Amino acid sequence: MLKPSIAGNGSSANAKQENFTMSASVPLISVGLPVYNGEGFLAQTLDSILSQTLTDFELIISDNGSVDGSRAIAESYARRDGRVQVVQSDINRGAAWNYKRVLDLARGPYFRWAPADDLFAPESLACCVEVLDQHPEAILCYPKTTLIDAHGGTIRPYDDNLDLRQASPVDRYKAVIKQLGLTNVIYGLMRTDVLRQTRLIGNFPGADLIFVAELSLFGQFHEIDRPLFFRRMHEGASSSIRSEQGVQAFMDPQVRRKRRFARRWYHLVENMRSVLHGPIKTSERVRLLFFLLRAMIASRDELLNELLLVMKPWGQRVSRL
Question: Over the stretch 285-298, which tens digit does the pLDDT of each residue have?
């Protein structure tokens, strides 16, 4: 259930040309909620956000050309609560673009992405702010996760296992690569200025995995040992999309891949780009590049098989000549 992130040209300028009104005071937190055809659970999600015990936040809802009732639901909440702002897109530009868009509009020093179908405990924001206020070395604070079903019933607790308090960015990065599963941590509370220094979430399948690893190069992750985030697992969630084409359409429907997506190779290259982009020492950069090289060697059979599958159509064309 990825609930993606980011790509698109000129998203900030386009978004700010819309009817986006700002209050005079700068909020402590900006909550960005990207939505596309999310009417089924949107009201429940908005209720959980607006019921936070910490009230000093703005809620930016970006409707990505929905054709259901999402926009009407969002606008009804905006009329009732001055903290809510709604912007729209004329067409669906994909989840990646929409996740970047809400960040572009954020004004608070702290930022949180909020999926359109999940729930937050009332004290979630307050607990995360307390941690970030007390620990300047932390750039992300996230609570434990409980997986819930379409009716809100508990499926099971989920341990993200990404409490990364190591001083070394090398150690943090390696831990993410080894331990990352569901990317629930991207719905934790982050420092806005740090988040904007990253490459954010790309517009390709699995881009959230690359993003979390890159983010670990910028600072520590702190976990709150309480289940304050409730991730809804249902048929309409992005995590339920099984086909590569479906995931790509979710991330960016404007991308049309003519050949099979070489996911392992693509992720390897993107991880290397993250290491080269991160704010780390040259010695640390070299160590992580060697770490990725060793991982490449360890998975050489899978990489070779993927390469053969990608090249198979080319071989068939040559054989027909």
Answer: 999 999 999 999 99
Structure tokens that stand for 60 in this block = 């930016």
- What does the alpha-carbon distance between residue 236 and residue 40 come to, in Å, rounded to a whole number? 9
Task: Give DSSP secondary structure letters for 80-95.
Answer: H-TTEEEEE-SS---H
Amino acid, res. 69: G
Question: CA–CA separation, 113 vs 111, rounded Å?
Answer: 7
Which residues in the chain are classed under CATH 3.90.550.10? 11-251
Per the CB < 8 A criterion, the answer to whether 116 and 38 are in contact is yes
The answer to whether 223 touches 142, Cβ cutoff 8 Å, is: yes
| Chain segment 120-160, per-residue pLDDT in tens | 999 999 999 999 999 999 999 999 999 999 999 999 999 99
Q: Both ends of the chain: CA-CA distance in Å? A: 43
Structural class in CATH, domain 11-251:
alpha beta
Q: Using 50, 70 and 90 to split pLDDT, how confident is the model at 7?
A: very low
Q: Left, alpha or beta for 58 (phi > 0: left; psi -120 to 50: alpha)?
A: beta
